[in-house]
Design brief:
The structure holds two protein chains of two kinds. By secondary structure, chain A is mainly alpha-helical. Chain A has one domain: Phosphate transport system protein phou homolog 2, domain 2 (Methane Monooxygenase Hydroxylase, Chain G, domain 1, Up-down Bundle), CATH 1.20.58.220. Helices cover 85% and strands 0% of the residues of chain A. Chain A is elongated and about 65 Å long. Chain B is mainly α. Chain B has twelve helices and two strands, in the order H-H-H-H-H-H-H-E-E-H-H-H-H-H. In chain B, strand 1 and strand 2 form a beta hairpin. Chain B is globular, with a radius of gyration of 20 Å. Classes of the chains: A mainly alpha, B mainly alpha. Chains A and B meet through helix 1 and helix 4 of A and helix 7 of B.
């Protein structure tokens, strides 16, 4: 009874992180469905990502307003709010990317499928590790480092794959320039998921130092 | 007549409430962890309880320093303390009621030709130094423990916030009780020997004349808290001392423990029974104890950011405040006796 509101807030925060992590998993599945040409499953995952993103928005707003109206955690309120918003950016990026796949239906040559999936895997891994880092930030700031370095690792890997993929595409003699540009746009989109996860990690690094002194 | 002469003491109480309540609830209110109303109600209630039930010990010590035996004399001693606090505050110097009242009493001793008990004086002055030092040591230890605690138990950030709020209120209540117990002597101590009150029994509980006096003093402190301390609390919380709510919890707990140690007669009895060294029951400055505790935390952080000139200023207050108060007391007693024709001491 005494900590009812606090418990509810903790639950909402946990759910927000679950939703973020789940969005990443659905993203990877959707990309795989797209290259398998499984339209039904792809659409299911697209719908799921939409729902998850909406849920994340609702949760974020509820947590933010509760933190402010009840003047909770006055010292770290700003940090937690910024964390929520940057994390929400990652989910938004996933939704935007998958929506563009659905609308623009880029034609990806078969020999590039594996690279695209590889790139998505690195981005989703970065996303997953940053969610773990946030969970630890809330309960055990000392352990955050263990996850942050993995976020940075996967972000770098995603960059490397993206660069190699772009080189491969632009050196191709069979693809026309419009296709090349179109594919580059999607590579950037997927790579951005890892970049946005890195933004969250950057903030977490500072907040963790702040919490440890 | 008695109530008229008591006004200087009540004024001291009011100023104590206005200023010193912020030592207990300043950061809690300033950082909006605790609402001012909640803080004011708890602080008032516990200050009055502490003053009424545990204020006797420190008053006895002040009584040993100099037992002011005429009402007009007591009025002047409290007034001299109040005026010197006003002067020191206006000059931006750190000041404490405890040090001012001692100066006032010494002024009366000199005027009336009563010898000042050097043993008692040494006891009092040494506790001005040992109080903040002890608070620093407590704060250091508690802070170290406190840092380890949430890490070990992996308490959620939100849960930690809820615990801290509860802690700030609980520790604040203890702090207010200790403040009342320790500092009521400054406000009402000099009036104890001349109190015209008689013990009354309400529903089987006897309230002695001293307790009635302390109850009045406690109420004046509470009035100070309600009427003026909000401004001071917000300043303390937002401007002067930037403490995190968790650090504030440690500071107030350390400060409250020290105030309690220097005022509890039952604790003294317990220590005597168990052959442990006792602390003198002496009114000490809550502000200086709190500063001591903050320094303790500074040391726990590796000693960075401690402003050593603040310590120098406090030490200068230990000397300056009693001297100013003694001089004012002496001069005012002269006027009271010769101009207003009021007896200020019994030979």
């Amino acid at each position: 009874m005494l900590f009812k509101k606090t418990k509810m807030l903790e639950r909402k925060m946990d759910e927000f992180l679950d939703v973020t992590s789940e969005t990443g998993l659905a993203f990877l599945e959707a990309i795989k469905n797209y290259f398998d040409n499984d339209q039904v499953k792809f659409n299911n995952h697209l719908e799921k990502i939409n729902d998850l993103e909406n849920r994340a928005d609702v949760l974020r707003r509820e947590i933010e307003s509760q933190l402010y109206t009840e003047t909770l955690i006055p010292e770290s309120r700003g940090d937690v709010l910024a964390l929520l918003e940057t994390t929400d950016n990652v989910t938004n990026q996933v939704k935007e990317t998958i929506l563009d796949f659905s609308i623009e239906a880029p034609v990806v040559p078969r020999d590039l499928h594996k690279d695209f999936i590889n790139l998505t895997e690195h981005s989703v891994n970065a996303m997953d590790e940053v969610v773990k880092a946030i969970r630890h930030f809330l309960r055990n700031p000392m352990a955050v480092r263990d996850y942050l370095h993995k976020v940075y690792y996967y972000e770098k890997e995603a960059d490397k794959v993206a660069e190699a993929l772009k080189r491969k595409i632009f050196r191709s003699e069979t693809l026309d320039l419009s296709t090349k540009s179109h594919l580059r746009f999607f590579i950037r989109h997927i790579d951005s998921v890892a970049d946005k996860a890195e933004d969250v990690a950057d903030r977490l690094t500072i907040y963790t130092i702040k919490r440890s002194i | 007549m008695f109530l008229l002469f008591l006004t200087s003491g009540l004024f001291l109480g009011w100023s104590l409430g206005a200023n010193d309540a912020s030592n207990i609830f300043g950061t809690a209110v300033g950082t909006r962890m605790v609402k001012f109303r909640t803080a004011a109600i708890i602080a008032s209630l516990f200050v009055i309880m502490g003053a009424t039930f545990s204020g006797a010990g420190t008053s006895n010590t002040l009584g040993k320093l100099g037992s002011v035996n005429q009402l007009a004399g007591a009025f002047i001693v409290a007034l001299a303390a109040a005026i010197s606090i006003f002067i020191m505050t206006r000059s931006g110097l750190p000041v404490s009621t405890s040090q001012a009242i001692v100066g006032g009493i010494i002024g009366w001793n000199i005027y009336s030709g009563t010898p000042t008990d050097i043993t008692t004086l040494t006891k009092i002055v040494s506790s001005w130094v040992s109080g903040p030092l002890l608070a620093a040591a407590f704060a250091f230890l508690i802070y170290k423990l406190f840092l380890a605690f949430p890490r070990l138990l992996r308490i959620h950030l939100f849960r930690l916030d809820a615990y801290t709020r509860m802690g700030l209120i609980t520790v604040g209540a203890f702090g207010a009780y200790s403040l009342g117990a320790n500092n009521i002597a400054n406000v009402m101590g000099v009036f104890v020997p001349v109190s015209p009150f008689h013990a009354i029994t309400v529903m089987g509980i006897t309230i002695s004349s001293t307790e009635q006096l302390f109850l009045l003093g406690g109420i004046s402190i509470a009035v100070g808290i309600f009427t003026y301390s909000q401004k001071v609390m917000t300043t303390v919380g937002e401007d002067v001392l930037k403490l995190t709510p968790q650090a504030a919890l440690v500071v107030v707990l350390a400060g409250a423990l020290v105030l309690f140690l220097f005022s509890s007669e039952s604790l003294e009895q317990w220590l005597i029974v168990h052959n442990l060294p006792t602390l003198p029951l002496v009114p000490i400055s809550s502000s200086q104890v709190i500063i001591g505790a903050i320094i303790g935390i500074g040391v726990a952080h590796g000693g960075r950011g401690i402003q050593y000139q603040v310590l120098g200023r406090i030490a200068s207050g230990w000397v300056l405040t009693p001297i100013i108060a003694a001089v004012i007391s002496f001069v005012a007693l002269f006027f009271m006796e010769n101009v207003f024709k009021q007896p200020v001491y019994l030979p």
